[in-house]
User: What shape does this take?
Amino acid sequence: MVYLALEPRAASEAIRLAAIAGWCVWVGSDAITPEEHHRLCANGAQLTRFSYPLANAIPDVIADSLVTIEEHHPGEIVWVQHVWSEGAN
Assistant: This one.
């Protein structure tokens, strides 16, 4: 299983849950710092950090990110954080 976390708070939670279950997490460049990424990976996290931000990304950017994840994890279930757009109920 793979998590795609778009925001820092969700990234922290996904990383915590993935560590327990042995799953992978992918995040945008705005979800964790390069230093956090390095530290977490050094401690065994299965974590990939995109070189671009995802927190406010348009749907096409998220779709491209999912294509990349699929290339690295073919056939895996991917859970994607949903972010409500401003003004949504």
Observations:
- The mean pLDDT is 93.
- The CA atoms of residues 6 and 57 lie 9 Å apart.
- The radius of gyration is 13 Å.
